[in-house]
Amino acid sequence: MKTVVLVGCGKSKLSRPAPAKDLYTGALFKKARAYAERIGDEWAILSAKHFLVMPDEVIEPYERQLKGLSPDYLRQWIWNTNWFIRSRWKVWENKIRFICLAGQEYAQAFDHELLSKDVKIAAEFPLAGMGIGQRLQFLSRKENRTA
Hints:
Blueprint: E1 2-8, E2 18-19, H1 20-23, H2 27-39, E3 42-47, E4 51-53, E5 58-59, H3 71-89, E6 96-101, H4 104-107, H5 132-144
Parallel strand pairs: 1-3, 1-6
Antiparallel strand pairs: 2-5, 3-4
């Protein structure tokens, strides 16, 4: 079974275009990226602007968060991101284990009430219910654990 890890984007970014894996500079993103690279067969980034971004895709810095966006945009984001995930990994054909290392807003792309049951995606959310400090501690413990 293939493991795909999806990491939430971060607010802190470089001031110039860069591969997405390098664009986000915050501590939480960096720790999530390291964990994703260690445990996943593939990983990608859930982006408030670009929906789903592959690590080597070059993108420009942007300012957008899911929190506070209009319900219409949020609905569009959920549908588009879900579609990109399902299309990229052809979830209807393969057995894939999804792990989402992102906040609650981003997790909506997997299982939101507006998604029909045939498009919902089963995923694990190891950071669910944790604040940023707790997420950093969790990822630090995983980082310090020997493989």
